[in-house]
Every structure is written in C-alpha cells, then in structure tokens.
Amino acid sequence: MPTTDLDTELSTERTHLESSRAALRRMRDRAQALFSTGDKVAGDSYTAEQLGRHMARRVKELADDPDTPLFFGRLDIDEEDAAYHIGRRHVTDDAGEPMVLDWRAPLSRSFYRASVRDPQGISTRRRFGFVKGELTSFEDEHLDRGEELGTSSRILTAEIERPRVGPMRDIVATIQPEQDELVRADLADSICVQGAPGTGKTAVGLHRAAYLLYLHRERLRKSKVLIVGPNTAFLSYISAVLPTLGEVEVLQSTVDELVGRAPVKAGDPLAATALKHDVRMAEALHRMLWDRVSKPTEPIMVSDGSYRWRIDVEPLRRIVDEARREGLPYSVGRERVRARVVGLLQRQSEYRTGNSPSDPWLRRMSRIAPVTEFLDAAWPAVTPESLVVALLTEPELAGDVFTEEEREAIRWVKPPKTVKSARFSVADLLLLDEAAGLLERETSFGHVVVDEAQDLSPMQARAIARRSEHGSITLLGDLAQGTAPWATTDWRDILAHLGKPEAAVVPLTIGFRVPEAVVALANRLLPALGVNVPEAVSLRRDGDLSVIAVPDPDDLDARTLTEVTAALTHEGSVAVIAADTAVDRLRAHLDAAGLAHSTPDQVDDPARITVVPATLVKGLEYDHVIVHEPTDIVDAEPKGLNRLYVVLTRAVTRLSVLHSKPLPEALSLA
Ligand SMILES: Nc1ncnc2c1ncn2[C@@H]1O[C@H](COP(=O)(O)OP(=O)(O)OP(=O)(O)O)[C@@H](O)[C@H]1O
C-alpha cells in the first residue's frame, strides 16, 4: 500500500464512502418497497401488521445521516489480506458482502481494544477525520510496527475539543478501551460505573444499551430496554444518541414519570418528602398490607341448587397459611386462595354427583357470595390507593416503624373523604408504586440504564428494582455529584436497594469534557463533599478559567451580561448558570439587551445562550459556562457544595466564575 500518496489513499476511501452510501440507499429502497407491499404478501391482518411494523422500523434504522460518514475507521488484517471499514451500521453490497461493519460486530471490537501489546491480528488501525459527513483526513497506527497513538490521537483530540452545540452526540468513533470494556459487558452483568464529571458515563450507558440491543435483538425487543435520567431536560439532551445509532425503540424516562400512576395534586413539607423516600416506607406498607390477612373463623356454606357444600374452618386456615408462605404478591395470593377454595367445592361436587363440573359452574362458584365474603374477611381486596391513603391517614397502623414525630410529619392534616378524592404528592407516587408492587408483580425490562444514580432515594431505587427484577442494570453516577437530600455516599447501599448487591463498581477516570484548569478548581471542593471518589484526570490541556470578583453586588448582573457578550465572540454554546431564584431576572436582562436565549430543554435549534437554573444542569455541558454568584448556589440547598461541584464541571472549553459575595470557603484559593 503506497503510504506516500496520501491524497490517492484518501480519494480511494472517499470512493468507498460514496459506494457504501449508495449501497445503504439501495438497502433502504428495498426495505421501503417491502414495506409498501407488506399488506399484499402477508396472509392475515395480524401478520400484515407485524410485518408492517417490522419494516417501518427497518426503514427508520436504515436512515443515513448526511452529517456523519458511514464509517469512521478501518482495520487491516494482513494475514487475511483483508480490510474492514467500521461504522455505525452494517452496509452490504448487492451480493450481501460487507462494505461497512457495524461497530458492535465481534470483529469491530479490535478497533477499540487492539494495542501493540495485544494486536489481536490487526496490522493497521485507521481513524478517519471528517467534516459534515465528508472524509477529510485519516490517521494510521501500524500496530505491527509498534506504533500506537492512544489518547494522543489527533482525531480523538479534535473530537473531544470540538465545540458543543445542540443535543449530545454518539462517541462510536472514539470509544476508549476502559469505556469499551463497560459497553461490551455481558447482558447478564449488572455494573455500577463511578466516574468523575465528563468521564463519559452517560455516553457509556447509551452505547451499552445500543450494544446489547444489537447482540440480543430478539430478546430485548420483547423485554425492552429502559433509560432512566434525572429530568426531562437531560432526557431531551440525550434523546438523539440512540436513534443515531439505529436504535429507535428504547424507552427513556425520569423516575417520576415511571411511577406516575396518579395525577400530582399536592405538595409535601420537606420533612415529609424525606421520610417518604426512606426505605422504612416500604416496610410500613408491607406490614399494613399483610396485617389485613386474618385467620378464617367461619366455615363457608354454599347452596348450589339441591346441594349444600361446606368447607370447615380448619381447611380454610390451611389454605390461607399456605398461600401466605408462598410469598406471592398480595393480589395474586388472594386469587390463589379463591382458586383453592373453589377447588375444594369442585371436589365435593365431583364426589357427590360423579361428574366434573363445567367451566361456567366453576366461574359461578368463584364469584358466589359466600366465597367472596370469606375472601373479603380473610384476604380482603386492596388497591394501591387505599393502602397509601390508610398509611397517610393512620400512620400508627404501621406499628413501631415510625416515631411519634415521624407519624405526625406524614399524617394528612385533612384526610380525604374517599380514596378517590385523595390528593397525592410527587413522593406519594413512589408509595403508590411500592404498594402496587406488593399487590402485583411489575413487568421487568431486559436491561435498565440509570444515569445520575447517586441521587436515587431508597424508594426510587426500589421502583427501579421492580422493573429490572429479571434483567440487568447499568448504574452510572458520581458520588461527588449527589445533590438530593438522600443522595448516597456508598454505592453498595443503592445496589442493595436495587436488588443487585453483587454488581461490580467500576471506575472511569479519564475526563473528556472539562479542561485541566477547570477540573483543578472543581477538585478543591472534593475534600468538603464527604465522599471517597478518585479525582478525574483530564485529557484536555486547552481551555480557560477566569474567576472575576465584582466589588459592587449591584454590578454583578451587568458584568455577567458583558461576559456573555464576550463569550459570543467564540464558537460554541454559552450557558449562564445561576441559583434558581436569579434565573428569571437574568433572563429579563438578556431580553432587555436583545440577546436571544433558550431554556435547557430546548435542544432542537436552541439559541447560543442558555440560562440554566443550577438545579437543572446535571448531566449537561456547554462550551462556555458563566457561573453567577457561587455562594448563592451553595446557600440554596443543604447539598449546595455538591451542586456547585456539578455546576463548575459543565464547561467544555471556558469557565468564568463571577462573584460579589466571598467565594465559598472550600473553593477559595489556598
Ligand atoms: N471516548 C470519547 N470520545 C469522545 N468524546 C467523548 C468520549 N467519552 C466521552 N466523551 C464526551 O465527553 C463529554 C462528557 O461525556 P458524558 O456526558 O458521557 O460524561 P459523564 O461522565 O456522564 O459526565 P457527568 O458526570 O458530568 O454527567 C461528552 O461530550 C461526550 O461526548
């Protein structure tokens, strides 16, 4: 291969890109044609609908994004005299020969993992640089000659340092070995990734979802993959990544949306909210529910035409005891008891009449008044709403689970007249979900990815555990970024509540977002955060940090505006992050100055400036971050220092910190 003639080489690669694009178009056209003829070829309407859905999905998956080339790398295997292009999806020519290999294919793994020490049969690894879907350069590592670039790759550096505008992008072209190990972990493995800001946790979680969907397509299409994020702004920010990777059927949700089975009509005082997230709520609900089961005291007597059936107290007690011991969800247990009672009636009838009773007879017996009355006494029907209403109306029913003070904290001042008229709060939805999980089994997802997991409360973790009972989880987070009042300081606690105590806790340490100087500033806060986490090592030597003291507080907003205007002279996104209470005021200033701005959930076509309340900035990133009065951010909440740590680590290139009040002590220059 002539390595001297780089232009010829690049133009050969461009030709391959063109032919691959044309081949993908043909694949799409074929799928489209099948889609339109689907109705005619399918035997019946059900098959037609299934086929139609499958083809519609296939057509969507085969969409070509003109802004990204179909491949980003190439592997040469000299021994086989073969070269494979690696891209976002498989592309085959008309004869079915691969033109581009999906990044998730087994062979592609070497693109991310091969090294001089372990070349995996690869002689040369090539990475492509591109601008707007066109190949502009390439970079070769001749592993067989001991050449390896690692993180000094020019193309990797350019990718990391590119300005950020709009929603999050995939990282398939540059996944690093420590990330790849997590992305390709087995479906059976639950893992917990602890990583400093910008180490690629979110990216890893999304790519793992895409990888698992590729490898276990049929299974996960049935059982589904769920991504849980902290808020809707964050979910909009990440929403484009999986579709770009061809995965269009993943459910993304916040925990609140996941458990939202009733409308929220009330608020809670802080103390009540905190208690409602405490794991003792689960115990209370469990106790109160199972206290409703009681020992039968009366026999069942049923008149059935000319016959009379009787079941004595003893066998009834046995049935109830046995069903309790089986550990079934409550409502399932109730039906089990009903079925066994009807079974006894059936046996009596068979004995007396010599015939097997008909199905209608069995149905009638299972609904007949004496059977229902027995059940209502021994194993009464319960709804999640009625159980939660009982708990919040009479917390003493939970026995000694709560102290007197705690009971008063959650007790409804004015109990609702009926269960239907109950006004539930956001935290009550978790209780309803817990109650529903005690009554019936939740459907489990095949895999659940939870981002910003350090903020999960025990009750939230349990809600996720119910939805991943038969699946695995990828937990992503950073203990230092825990801002919820119940945020954990030990991953083992959350993993236990999630029902995955055996999951490995794996660190990610290389930071791809925050420049070194900015990381150094944020790291000053770490000792004050009370968590034991490794510091990030930033790959970025570029970037700027300025800490600007504004002596007169009345000048602070104006000075912030000046900083915004200066930031606009650079490329990329600009965020003003401030305590929530200052946000409206700052937005009004920008309006008055004629500067267009967005809110963080406006990811499609946002203005270059976004004003973000500190409490909503988790997981997001902007090229230039302007932090307005850090002390106000810290003072706004109990975990204010953790919040500030999150805020300071959002900057991709430049960070300006503007303050009139003294900086928080933990941040002050030593
Ligand atoms: N291997 C990589 N190649 C290129 N860019 C990467 C890589 N890994 C991560 N990034 C980029 O670094 C930035 C931070 O990644 P991500 O948001 O996943 O980090 P995080 O660990 O979830 O951060 P935080 O804790 O702040 O939420 C993103 O812009 C992401 O695209």
TrEMBL record:
PROSITE patterns: UVRD_HELICASE_ATP_BIND. Keywords: ATP-binding, Helicase, Hydrolase, Nucleotide-binding. InterPro entries: DNA_helicase_UvrD/REP (IPR000212), P-loop_NTPase (IPR027417), UvrD-like_ATP-bd (IPR014016). GO terms for cellular component: cytosol. This is DNA helicase IV. Residues 174-515 form the UvrD-like helicase ATP-binding domain. One of its GO terms (molecular function) is hydrolase activity. It comes from the Bacteria. GO terms for biological process: recombinational repair. Gene3D superfamilies: P-loop containing nucleotide triphosphate hydrolases (3.40.50.300). ATP binds at G195, A196, P197, G198, T199, G200, K201, T202.
